[in-house]
Amino acid sequence: MHRYRSHNCGELRAADVDTDVRLSGWLHNRRDLGGILFIDLRDHHGITQLVARPGTPANEALGSLTKESVVRIDGKVSARGADNINPDLPTGEVEIEVSAVEVLGAAEQIPFTINAEDGVNEEKRLEYRFLDLRRERMHRNIMLRTAVISAIRQKMVTLGFNEMATPILSATSPEGARDFLVPSRLHAGKFYALPQAPQQFKQLLMIAGFDRYFQIAPCFRDEDARADRSPGEFYQLDIEMSFVEQEDVFQPVEKLMTELFTEFGGGREVTSPFPRIPFRESMLKYGNDKPDLRAKLELVDVSDVFAGSGFKAFAGKHVRALAVPDTADQPRKFFDQLGEYAVEQGAKGLAWVRVGEENALTGPIAKFLTEDDVKALVSKLDLAPGHAVFFGAGEFDEVSKIMGAVRVEAAKRAGHFEEGVFRFCWIVDFPMFEKDEETGKIEFSHNPFSMPQGGLEALETKDPLDILAWQYDIVCNGVELSSGAIRNHEPEVMYKAFSIAGYDKDTVEAEFGGMLRAFKFGAPPHGGIAPGVDRIVMLLADEPNIRETIAFPLNGNAQDLLMGAPSEVEESRLKELHLSLRKPQVK
């Protein structure tokens, strides 16, 4: 018999009764019933119940061990009585009469329970992440991640893509976030940058003639944490294709996402095909560029209704309305709570009216609306008795943010929200440039390596803020899964696009010399995308926080509480790297 096990802890069944077996695992739980010990032994594969009778060496050994100790046991498989069968366990029909025990790894008193979710705070969980990962939910999430990545690789190869690796130590690149820098020992005063994405390298692979590339790529960005964004590092499915237009990229990616979310989504319905929503339409209808289409409500611009209105709160402002049907039976509390929610999002309040018989309006602002206002609203919002209408007024971006959140919350509270589905869409036609509100400078709004719609002619003849790019995002259930674009592969277009964003020719050549040099030696039209692996798994696992699907994440302050990173280094190492420190003064 093997030194540690003849079977794993998820393997034994009724057919194994009377078999001598050896198992190894963690002491998951223990119950003492009249001196008889019932032990749940756990390993990667599952749980098996052990029985240790009073007066036996096994009873004494198992009774004195702390939970989470690692043991090897020998014993015989026996059938559980009919009343003791556990239908929730694959091994629930059997138990092991233990005859011998060997302690392989004794455990100290654990800082939180493993066999139940006891509400321990995240900092403690990350400090003892190796224990946290023993919990059933976390173990399941990590194994889901493993299965999803394996499936991605198989499906990408089937779709005709080739897996290739790109460098980790590279040069800085304007991807929109701060780089992590690595000092060079051999080149004093110079630094490598960890890649924010393999953007330039995957484009160079297309120029080199490899046609279809993919990679499960590690990316590094020095940015703050959010529920759907891990600080420091993350993984993405990096994809690039040659001789393609936008729809050519959409087809394999949409097929991949549909298959992944169908296979691992637990029976939840998946959108097919994915609707294409222009960026500006999304901002108007949903208040953002990552709409949660499970909410079956839309915002409507009613600024024109109030353009010359005597209602001073709305006059001359951007006004967005949200019509919510089937609210006739909603109490005043429904309206008050939505108002409180809007305030939490940054609003000063939330104006609203009810629609009654003959489309008569009641509510806090009804008395300020003229007969013409009411007629215009009824027509534009397609109102009927039983509707409620909520209004946001102010600057476009502010109203969009607040009313976009109110839209989803109102749908949930009023029963217009789909549960148990994955609602995908493509957001398309992003603006190529945007204006920095503080400096007034024109900046890239998305990916600087994108092809503008209309090419060089658009860059030379249009207002930069009117130029659209061949850029696109995949969104699912209000979460942005990826960004992508048809790339700019023409040097003159690149020079012009960067000049509009304030980069002179010398700067472009200094920062992107490798890319430009490649463009000048025959570059094919190409495009790609990079869905976030962490976010995909987060949605499939139905977890609210991305850290729940990563084995060893940093905390919200970009710290590794288990390994103690970031850490100080000795002066000798700094000297070797030609570095001296200038720490901020403590006030």
TrEMBL record:
Xref: PROSITE patterns: AA_TRNA_LIGASE_II
Residues reported to bind ATP: 221-223, 480, 532-535
Principal subcellular localization: cytoplasm
Boundaries of every Aminoacyl-transfer RNA synthetases class-II family profile domain copy: 144-553
Family to which this protein belongs: Belongs to the class-II aminoacyl-tRNA synthetase family. Type 1 subfamily.
PANTHER family found in the cross-reference section: ASPARTATE--TRNA LIGASE, MITOCHONDRIAL, ASPARTYL/LYSYL-TRNA SYNTHETASE
Name by which UniProt lists this protein: Aspartate--tRNA ligase
Classification of source organism: Bacteria, Bacillati, Actinomycetota, Actinomycetes, Kitasatosporales
